[in-house]
Amino acid sequence: MKEREKLRVRMLNEGFALIKQHGMTHASVEKITQAAGLGKSTFYNFFSSKEQFVTEIIEFQRDRSKEYFDQILDGREKMTAAEGKAYLKKIVFSRDSIYQYLTAADMEKLKAVSPVEYCNPDDSAYDQREAWIMHALFDHMEHVRKDLNIHVVANLIKVMALAKVNRDALHADVLDETLEHIYGLLFHLVFEDVA
Hints:
- The chain is mainly alpha-helical.
- The chain is 68% helix and 0% strand.
- It contains 10 helices and no strands.
- Helix 1 (3-22) crosses helix 4, helix 4 (50-73) crosses helix 6 (104-113) and helix 9 (150-165) packs antiparallel against helix 10.
- The longest helix is centred in the first third of the chain and has 24 residues, at 50-73.
- It is globular and about 55 Å long.
- The protein starts with a helix and ends in a 5-residue tail after the last helix.
């Protein structure tokens, strides 16, 4: 890994650790660069703003999820349904998913700096990108329903993400149980019932 990429990855990792601990609002550029052992000017050589930095963390996590997906496949064309279910649970709400540490206000800030194909479901580029991602996932999993509606599946995943982002408006004591029920519905809609 080149030195510049090492610096970038160090800032992304340290920034994410701070967001997990303090939230996006309180993870200042100064705190991020201090944690990474770098100067503020180095941060701005890589990122134009904290919001753009956080979108980079999201992309970095997606890249890691893709690497994990490839590891599970390990050269096979398809993973088992059980592996697919475990993968979906891991990527949606593992402790390494930034979404559970963001607030609705954070998401609005990120939406303002993101390309339309990343955040506007009414845009055809967004729809194409989302469809490509869903097919890239489900085409490599066994026992996926032939009548899979990727928009419904995408909405369920977003509902779970919105539940985490807006957890203050929900009953926190049963949020995990609620999400488990949504996972059950998600898996029922994605995978065939195989005895």
